[in-house]
Design goal:
The chain is α+β, with helices and mostly antiparallel strands. It has 5 helices and 7 strands; from the N terminus they run ββαβββββαααα. Helix 3 packs parallel to helix 5.
């Protein structure tokens, strides 16, 4: 039986992947309240890619599949706004949504079964993707400095490539939703034949 939970949802024009870092600037009251409650209760919130609408103001529609975010750090910025850094944890699928009076979205979610005992070692045919990721990781700077690298794990490599490559948000969402880590690498290899990664 899949685990379920009720969590607040932060709709963004960004895809968060498991294991990935994401800095956020919080300025709407509904989200500062949400972050405050998450910090007090030591709980996370969901990040879902917006399908229609904006991050600010109204109520946006989102994809059903998102990622649970845990708050790793927070600080008050020089402009007086709250800054946080979150880390992607596990993927979920939204079962049911409701909107609170303050326009904050909550959802009942079902977490994906990520089998940590499964053999996710990368076949040799994808060594080129691993080499490419190692090069990209050496260029991304402080955001990834504390990350524990796992270049032998297909899930970790696939998520990092999808995160760092210059892909459209819809493509990133596609790779988030794929369940088979080897298939994810295969499809990433196909996409790489058609994009410029020189920048």
């Amino acid at each position: 039986m899949l685990a379920t939970a009720r969590i607040p949802i932060f709709p963004l024009h960004t895809v968060l992947f498991p294991g990935g870092p994401l800095p956020l600037r919080i300025f709407e009251a509904r989200y500062t309240d949400m972050i405050s409650q998450c910090l007090k209760s030591n709980i996370g919130f969901g990040v879902c890619l917006i399908t229609e609408g904006k991050e600010v103001g109204g109520i946006a529609s989102t994809h059903e599949v998102g990622t649970l975010a845990s708050i790793q750090d927070w600080h008050m910025r020089k402009d007086g706004l709250l800054g946080i850094v979150v880390k992607g944890e596990k993927r979920f699928r939204v079962i049911k949504q409701n909107i609170e009076e303050n326009k904050l979205m909550f959802a009942e979610v079902e977490y994906f079964e990520e089998d940590a005992t499964k053999n996710n070692f990368i076949p040799r045919e994808y060594d080129g993707l691993v080499d490419m990721l190692e090069e990209r990781m050496s260029q991304v700077g402080s955001r990834y400095a504390s990350m524990k690298n796992n270049y032998i794990d297909a899930s970790w490599v696939g998520f990092r490539l999808a995160e760092l490559l210059p892909l459209r948000s819809s493509q990133k969402q596609y790779f988030l939703q794929l369940n088979d880590p080897i298939q994810r690498l295969e499809r990433l290899g196909d996409v790489l034949q058609h994009i410029d990664i020189s920048t």
